[in-house]
Design a protein that fits this description.
binds adenosine-5'-triphosphate, alpha+beta, globular, Dna Ligase, domain 1, five-stranded mixed β-sheet, binds magnesium ion, four-stranded antiparallel β-sheet, 444 residues
């Protein structure tokens, strides 16, 4: 932040983060004489951001104008979030404006292959490392510097509008935080990640690295899938990347580092030559599909070529089935893309007539049964909702998490809190409203 001295008593003024600051206007107040003033910081952030990120000023201006960036305080740290891709910056990129400006890039989109044979040969030259694709939610864990501002907040807790408890406790110069895909620090995930793993040594030695992984298991508020080796909640690391550049470590370097710090990695099924890979992966997909596992991510061992993903028929069906519980809350593209995947997979796997019939039947059942159930349910006066139980330390923590969901635009409420278990209810408004309307004779 630009330094400003008080015109009355010359002490160093502080940005007042309780006020509605923007990218160019900051409210300052003087801690000594309590003078307050709004200061226009012409182009300060824009220039600084361009300098750090090497992003063109028109791109940044356009993104700000279109409302694709958001400026807010997160855990007491002023934050600029890119909600949409901007130039080279992935959506979900965040810039923390503490003493040192820190950039955590969004997790890059992984393209999908519909037909392994031709796309693997086109995309990868020689070797392909095949990792398991776990079905949970994407998390980036980083250590960020927040000394000055966190200290301000500890003295004046009210300035932390979100009331995140830990910001007021033991103030360190660096804080480990966990971000979900969109770029928001999730209080639940931040806490759980540190309970599940010892991250202190890793970040003490590697403050410039980001751990990217999947939070998996049944007891989380985002994506619940049971894995026998996980049970309620676990974390699996799939990438280690550099903060500012987003460059990933090679598969080897990543695995060595994870072993060194005793951090859990996703399964590596093997490294195959591009010629053998199609056959090997099709076999693998059939096998893990039967275990209701999601799929694979194929990576070049050096990580210099972007990875590709491929998923099992059972995973497609499971997602279709889930989404047809709340059909009007999911976009049409959600359903169509999964049917397309099934079509190409059936073609490439050369299913026998019996197998093909089974595939078709599974897909049909995943559509029609949940649709029937939800129409019946709403007709019986029971709304389309989804309850998840999460484990928290207090009711306050559960309420804070629900506030976080509201910030993300999710319609949710706390239904019950008892002995560390909080039931969070998500409400599917579009499904409720539309189905009620059709049940009352509304036209489609
Ligand atoms: P995308 O990431 O391609 O934009 P998406 O958000 O719809 O798509 P998915 O279809 O689930 O997500 O596929 C990509 C995601 O898979 C990654 O963002 C990551 O969270 C998850 N993932 C699970 N296992 C791995 C792995 N081994 N390597 C990379 N990503 C993995
Ligand atoms: Mg996923």
């Amino acid at each position: 932040m630009p330094e400003v001295n008080c015109p009355k008593c010359s002490s160093k003024m502080r940005v007042d983060w309780r006020r509605n600051n923007t990218l160019t206007h900051f409210f300052y107040s003087c801690p000594s004489c309590e003078l307050e003033s709004q200061i226009e910081v012409e182009d300060f952030l824009e220039k600084k951001i361009q300098e750090i990120l090497g992003i063109k000023s028109e791109k940044l201006e356009e993104s700000i104008k279109k409302g694709n960036t958001k400026f807010f305080i997160s855990m007491g740290i002023p934050t600029l979030l890119f909600k949409k891709e901007t130039g080279e910056l992935e959506s979900g990129t965040v810039i923390y404006l503490s003493d040192e400006i820190e950039v955590i890039r969004g997790f890059p989109k992984i393209r999908r292959t519909l037909l392994l044979g031709p796309s693997l040969k086109n995309h990868f030259q020689d070797l392909i490392a095949v990792e398991e694709k776990m079905n949970g939610y994407n998390v980036r864990i980083a250590s960020i510097n927040c000394s000055d501002i966190c200290q301000d907040i500890s003295k004046n807790p009210e300035s932390n509008s979100k009331g995140f408890d830990e910001a007021n406790e033991d103030i360190k110069h660096n804080k480990i935080v966990a971000l979900t895909r969109g770029g928001y620090i999730c209080p639940f995930t931040t806490k759980k990640a540190q309970e599940l793993m010892n991250l202190d040594d890793f970040f003490a030695d590697n403050p410039e690295l980001i751990i990217c992984g999947e939070m998996v298991g049944t007891d989380n508020p985002y994506v619940s899938q049971y894995y026998p080796e996980v049970g309620k909640l676990a974390f699996r690391v799939f990438d280690i990347r550099h903060k500012l550049s987003n460059e990933p470590l090679s598969i080897d370097a990543k695995r060595k580092l994870l072993k060194q710090y005793n951090l859990p990695a996703v399964r590596l099924f093997g490294v195959f030559s591009a010629d053998d890979a199609q056959e090997k992966i099709l076999e693998l997909i059939k096998e893990i599909g039967l275990e209701h596992r999601e799929g694979v991510v194929m990576k070049h061992p050096s990580m210099e070529i972007p990875p590709l993903k491929y998923t099992s028929s059972q995973a497609h069906d499971r997602e279709i089935k889930y989404a047809f519980n709340f059909p009007f809350d999911f976009g049409r593209a959600f359903f169509f893309s999964r049917v397309v995947r099934e079509g190409f997979q059936a073609y490439e796997m050369e299913d026998s007539p019996e197998e093909l019939q089974k595939r078709a039947q599974r897909l049909g059942e995943s559509i029609i049964y949940p649709m029937m159930d939800i129409i019946k349910q709403i007709n019986d006066g029971e709304p389309a909702v989804e309850d998840t139980t999460i484990n928290v330390d207090s009711k306050k923590e559960a309420e804070e998490f629900v506030r976080h969901l509201h910030d993300l635009g999710v319609s949710a409420m706390l239904i019950e809190y008892k002995d560390g278990n909080a039931i969070i209810r998500r409400i599917y408004n579009a499904t409720n409203d539309k189905i009620k309307n059709y049940l009352n004779g509304g036209l489609y």
